[in-house]
Design goal:
alpha+beta; Alpha-Beta Plaits; 4-stranded antiparallel sheet
């Protein structure tokens, strides 16, 4: 299973530094980052593809991110 998360940042560079500093939190949530993109039309929007090893922990992480920082949404997907 994978998670596609979209982040609305208030400045990509500062957001990315904070994102990188919290790698252990994502690891503990069972998330492995596979790819990160920056929106071609909105420089303050990032999209991240994660591999999910534990959906419950990943959902908790996503809700925590939304509560603490806002501006994040996610969609869990499976290979068709």
């Amino acid at each position: 299973m994978h998670l596609i998360a979209t982040f609305s940042t208030n400045g990509f560079d500062a957001w990315k530094a904070g994102y990188d500093a919290h790698a252990e939190t994502r690891d503990a949530a069972g998330l492995t980052m596979l790819q990160m993109w920056r929106d071609a039309d909105d420089a303050d929007r990032a999209v991240v593809l994660f591999e999910v090893s534990d959906r419950k922990r990943a959902e908790a992480w996503l809700h925590e991110q939304a509560a603490l920082k806002g501006g994040v949404s996610g969609q869990f997907v499976k290979t068709a």
